[in-house]
Amino acid sequence: MLPAGQVRRPEKELALRARYRKERFMMILVGLGTGLAFLVLFLVIAYALAQGAGALNLDFFLKDMRPPGETGGGLRQAIVGTLIVDGLGLLIALPFGLAAGILLAEYPDHPVNPFLRLLSDTLNGMPAILFGLLAFVLLVKPMGGFSGLSGSFALGFLMIPILARSTEGVLSLVPKEIREAGLALGLPRWRVILSLVLPTARAGLITGVLLAFARAAGEAAPLLFTAFGSPLLELNPLKPMDTLPLRLFAFAISPYDDWHRQAWAAGLVLFGLITLTSLLARWASRRI
């Protein structure tokens, strides 16, 4: 009969080899899944480039759309409208989203938090078109017409739960010793949050803000009932305004080939805007 140590060693080696085999198998699965995801993304971008690259020229950025049946023109009114509507939406959502996230992270025992967390999770899972219907009831009907401002409110409703959850997640990563140091100096809790916690988490907060902006920038459904769209450049947010997702949808269902090409080009510009925003978010998370 062999000593106990000589019997157990082969068993340990077999168990270790089995673990290595499982790890290699899982790595292969992860690699295949990642490659498949990149392949789909590459095919989508390649097809969009093939269909819409021909419409991307200087006129596309400097001129407004042409009437139906006429070729040429651009989507200046939609590009400018996207920046205005999305920018106003972010300004509307920012204070509410940050405040909700701070309440969830810094005052975990507050009686409002369970309801606030449930509401935030529910809003995160709601279809975007419902935010448009909500803005239609609250703003479009009382104001008596469509406007870029009502579109901004619809996108703001969409951004608020994203900002709240991202802010809560980022603030929960701040070491508690920072808060304890501020409280030990006699600072009130609100001053500790403003002077110590938020500056420490600023990179993550900026990342959450940019990601919320990127998420809302690609939505067309909330704008169908609110901003409505305009064929001309409009800078007054109290009037109907055009946006890239809205114009992309309108052009995609039109019978004109030139508008189809411009719809693909609008998709490429929108993709570039969202990619740029995501890259800025990554840069901010590393440098700030």
A few lines on this structure:
The chain has 288 residues and is mainly alpha-helical. It has helices at 4-52, 58-62, 76-106, 113-125, 128-143, 148-171, 176-184, 189-200, 202-217, 221-224, 244-252, 257-287.
Structure characteristics:
288 residues; mainly alpha; 0% strand; globular
Q: Can you lay out the helices and strands and say which pair or pack?
A:
Elements: H1 4-52, H2 58-62, H3 76-106, H4 113-125, H5 128-143, H6 148-171, H7 176-184, H8 189-200, H9 202-217, H10 221-224, H11 244-252, H12 257-287
Describe the protein.
This protein has twelve helices and no strands. 76% of the residues lie in helices and 0% in strands. Helix 3 (76-106) packs parallel to helix 6 (148-171) and helix 7 (176-184) packs antiparallel against helix 8 (189-200). It has helices at residues 4-52, 58-62, 76-106, 113-125, 128-143, 148-171, 176-184, 189-200, 202-217, 221-224, 244-252, 257-287. The longest helix has 49 residues, at 4-52. It is mainly α.
